[in-house]
């Protein structure tokens, strides 16, 4: 564990963290929850309380929906698309200017290494605001050459208009608190919607800090409402609310099912970005050095708390012993510690519950007979650390090979040929991402076609961009976030007929 002292907190962040209670953002105002209840959020590296947060429940969701409706009918709708673009670009400018403060907050609330927050989360979040900031003036309908058989020779004009869906409920997880918030807000706002954002109870602060920034950028009151709270109360109220037109949910497949059920009351639209158990496949003809890095980063980035974690590693048998040993060696020597230390490569898990959950999977791996090559335990001391864990000789039907662990635990298995590895890689309920390492172009593309996943990475891992669509197949969800495809999520298409006869 690293021990170097942490850098000074940015003054903007110090000011934010000095608040006695972090209030809800509703209708442009900072308010207590109507119940008066609060909850604490913790620094996972130390277990200490980082802040106290007002807790939203269904009554606060009602208030936020009313504020969002009012904003939709008032100031937000009156802004021209060009003005909406300016607001989003201003938000991107502000975020870039405050990158240091936001990165530190991500590390303090989530535990991730500051180097990842700075080099990954922050530029990606600003990039999303910039990318979607360009869309408002480019979202348009089409004219359609319609025919009406029962009026021969008649003339009609038909056109489509892309309108905002209305009030969007965004329920997000704790693994990328800022990025997940921006990934939902940027396209939703670009399309002219109002949003009720519920951050995860483990990491509520980034969304609140972002709420301040968005008001400053000129987002009118009520357009973005931030309601920290718990899943079964605030989250469930958003999923079921009849005044909410669409829900975008990112989290576990299990909770995703609940959200789909709850959303059926008013048939609100839903998009789901759910779990994964993604295969990371190395052929013997790959650039093995690059592949070794890709295997390590694929599973251990963000402490393995990525829906896209490469948690099932398949290595062609001739290279299996060496690659497995190299992965285990890397895991044993990784610099793990408080994420605020710039030299830290791996931080703690987000919460003690998450640590317990991950440890129970590790126990199941040991019990079911997988070979433990690295890690396997949680270091003593404060903080929710779990050592990066590598299991070899894992069987396809073991729990660690089938269930999403959402932690730094990888299952490594040998394979013998292409058709075998395709069928084993696809033998999961999930289908978020897959990766293939090979120098054979033909094999790479055949694999990309055969793997059932929303994204396939060839000779790389964890690459994402604001312009590239993101989402899963099977139990990993539906709908695509990012790219122009996200516009489908946040607009509804109106069909207009004009009789020209
Ligand atoms: P994770 O496994 O990443 O913790 P969850 O699916 O448990 O993911 O949580 C993701 C988000 O869903 C969080 O914001 C959480 O509060 C919310 N949530 C949990 N349960 C429910 C529920 N029943 N209805 C709506 N949202 C929920």
Quick summary:
This protein has 501 residues and is of the alpha/beta class. It is built from 17 helices and 19 strands. It has a seven-stranded mixed sheet, with helices on both faces. The chain has a six-stranded mixed sheet with strand order 8-7-6-9-10-18, sandwiched between helices. The protein has a two-stranded antiparallel sheet with strand order 1-2.
What does this structure look like?
By secondary structure, the chain is of the alpha/beta class. Helix content is 39%, strand content 19%. The chain is built from 17 helices and 19 strands. Strands 13-14-15-12-11-16-17 form a seven-stranded mixed sheet, sandwiched between helices. The chain has a six-stranded mixed sheet with strand order 8-7-6-9-10-18, with helices on both faces. Strands 1-2 form a two-stranded antiparallel sheet. Helix 10 links the parallel strand 9 and strand 10. The structure holds adenosine-5'-diphosphate (ADP). Adenosine-5'-diphosphate binds next to helix 9 and helix 10.
């Amino acid at each position: 564990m690293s021990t170097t002292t942490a850098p000074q907190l940015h003054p903007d962040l110090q000011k934010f963290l000095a608040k006695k209670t972090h209030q809800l953002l509703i209708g442009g105002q900072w308010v207590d929850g109507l119940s008066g209840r609060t909850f604490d959020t913790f620094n996972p590296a130390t277990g200490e309380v980082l802040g106290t947060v007002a807790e939203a429940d269904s009554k606060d969701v009602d208030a936020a929906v009313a504020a969002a409706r009012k904003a939709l009918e008032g100031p937000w709708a009156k802004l021209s698309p060009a003005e909406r673009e300016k607001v989003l670009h201003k938000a991107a400018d502000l975020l870039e200017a405050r990158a240091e403060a936001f990165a530190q907050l991500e590390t303090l609330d989530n535990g991730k290494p500051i180097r990842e927050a700075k080099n990954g989360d922050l530029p990606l979040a600003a990039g999303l605001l910039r990318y979607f900031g360009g869309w408002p003036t480019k979202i348009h309908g089409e004219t359609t050459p319609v025919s009406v058989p029962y009026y021969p020779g008649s003339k009609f004009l038909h056109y489509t208009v892309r309108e905002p869906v209305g009030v969007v409920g965004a329920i997000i997880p704790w693994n990328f608190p800022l990025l997940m918030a921006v990934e939902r807000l940027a396209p939703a706002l670009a399309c002219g919607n109002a949003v009720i954002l519920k951050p995860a109870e483990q990491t509520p602060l980034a969304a609140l800090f972002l709420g301040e920034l968005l008001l400053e950028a000129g987002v009118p009151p009520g357009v973005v409402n931030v309601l920290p709270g718990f899943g079964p109360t605030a989250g469930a109220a958003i999923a079921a609310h009849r005044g909410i037109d669409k829900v975008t949910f990112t989290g576990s497949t299990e909770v995703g099912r609940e959200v789909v059920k709850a959303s059926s009351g008013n048939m609100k639209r839903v998009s789901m970005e759910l779990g994964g158990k993604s295969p990371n496949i190395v052929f013997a003809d790959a650039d093995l050095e690059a592949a070794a890095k890709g295997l390590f980063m694929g599973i251990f980035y963000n402490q393995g708390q990525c829906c896209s974690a490469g948690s099932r590693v398949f290595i062609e048998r001739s290279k299996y012993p060496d690659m497995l040993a190299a992965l285990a060696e890397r895991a044993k020597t990784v610099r793990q510690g408080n994420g605020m230390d710039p030299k830290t490569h791996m931080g703690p898990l987000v919460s003690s519950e998450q640590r317990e959950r991950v440890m129970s999977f590790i126990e199941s791996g040991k019990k079911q007979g997988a070979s433990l090559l690295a890690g396997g335990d949680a270091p003593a001391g404060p903080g929710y650390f779990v050592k990066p864990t590598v299991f070899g000789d894992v069987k396809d039907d073991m729990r660690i090979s089938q269930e999403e662990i959402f932690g730094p635990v990888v299952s490594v298995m040998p394979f013998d040929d292409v058709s075998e590895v395709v069928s084993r890689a696809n033998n999961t309920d999930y289908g978020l991402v897959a990766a293939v390492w090979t120098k054979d172009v033909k094999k790479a593309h055949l694999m990309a076609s055969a793997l059932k996943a929303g994204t396939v990475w060839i000779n790389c891992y964890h690459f994402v961009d604001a312009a590239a669509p993101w989402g899963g197949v099977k139990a990993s969800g539906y709908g695509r976030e990012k790219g122009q495809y996200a516009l489908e999520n946040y607009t509804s298409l109106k069909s207009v007929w004009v009789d020209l006869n």
